[in-house]
Write a structure and sequence with these properties.
Elements: H1 2-23, E1 27-28, E2 39-42, E3 46-49, E4 57-63, H2 70-85, E5 92-98, H3 106-114, E6 120-123, H4 127-136, E7 141-143, E8 156-158, E9 162-165, E10 171-175, H5 181-194
Parallel strand pairs: 4-5, 5-6
Antiparallel strand pairs: 1-10, 2-3, 4-9, 7-8, 9-10
Length: about 200
Amino acid sequence: MYRFLLGLASAAVLSWASVSHAETALHNVRGFLPDLRFTLETAGDKKVTQDDFKGSTVMMFFGYASCPDVCPTTMAQLAQVMHELGDDADKVRILFVSVDPHRDTPKILQAYVDAFESNAIGLTGTEKQVADVARRYRVAYQIEKPRGNNPDNYEVAHSRGVYIFDAAGRARYLAADTESVEVLTAGVRSLLDQS
């Protein structure tokens, strides 16, 4: 009986490990997701488009500056990827697209991303601009009702994921926000090697 239970436990662990491993793989999205395209705003009220990042590999993530957990964790991971890339980090940009255009002014957003990584750029825009970009990449988000009397005291529910584009702006990989730094770094390096 003891061996039977031990066998079941071992099988469960192996099964969990393979599922866990499968869930942490980069998903090749070439041909399934659209290429990098947007018109948004960054610090200094500067309008930017995908053309400003031609020649750079891009890791794009959707979130908001006052996010309590997911966004800072993911930004820290992406900053670690940049660190792991060493000198090659100059060929990579992190784009943090806010899904909270009401509170995330370009200045606030840039200060937020600068706290993690100097090659990160905070992007925001009008409600329509943000909604258009989110729809393009199938990102779902919802601004919750304010808590209490303060209209700025609310959370934003949003889908997670890191989109990775090659130097030509083609969508190449989609990663879970829980992806390991090692796997993300390997994926970015593979694109850098191809360019």
